[in-house]
Design a protein that fits this description.
The chain is 22% helix and 31% strand. With 144 residues, it is of the alpha+beta class. A six-stranded mixed sheet has the order 7-3-2-1-6-8. A two-stranded antiparallel ribbon has the order 4-5. The protein is globular and about 45 Å long.
Length: 144
């Protein structure tokens, strides 16, 4: 009977509704797929960070990025862009929070602020294994 009680308590704990803390990507896409889906693929340095009012919800964190290297898109090294991990339509962040002073590999589309999301393969530059593949994809797309 003791094990039945443990199972019942476990089921009850799992059934309690709680806010989600992460968004599931449904499996991470390949480097090639992320590259083809993104409008901008760059490495960038996190230069600054600020918080803006959330208009009736939690405040939204923005970062200023300085582009270091470009594999795809119209940005150039030295350009400064604004970015956030907040989805302005769904008002949800996917858990990717860039640290001030860190370097990132960014896959993004659209206008500023660029959306930083771990589902797009955006990641700290030192943890990514995409760089060799990006060099090859960039050469191929530029006919080199």
């Amino acid at each position: 009977m003791g094990s039945m009680l443990k199972v019942a308590v476990l089921i009850a704990c799992l059934a309690v509704a709680a806010p989600a803390v992460a968004i599931s990507c449904g499996g991470q896409q390949s480097t090639a797929h992320a590259y083809s889906s993104a409008q901008h693929v760059v490495s960038a340095h996190v230069e600054g960070s600020y918080v803006a009012p959330g208009f009736g919800r939690d405040a939204v964190r923005f970062v200023e990025l300085r582009v270091l290297k470009v594999w795809k898109g119209q940005l150039k090294p030295g350009d400064r862009v604004q970015a956030t991990a907040e989805d302005s339509i769904n008002f949800v962040g996917d858990g990717f929070v860039p640290l001030l002073g860190s370097d990132l590999l960014v896959y993004a589309s659209g206008s500023q602020p660029l959306m930083l999301g771990s589902c797009s393969r955006t990641a700290p530059l030192e943890t990514t294994r995409d760089l060799q593949a990006l060099e090859a994809l960039s050469r191929r797309s530029h006919g080199r």
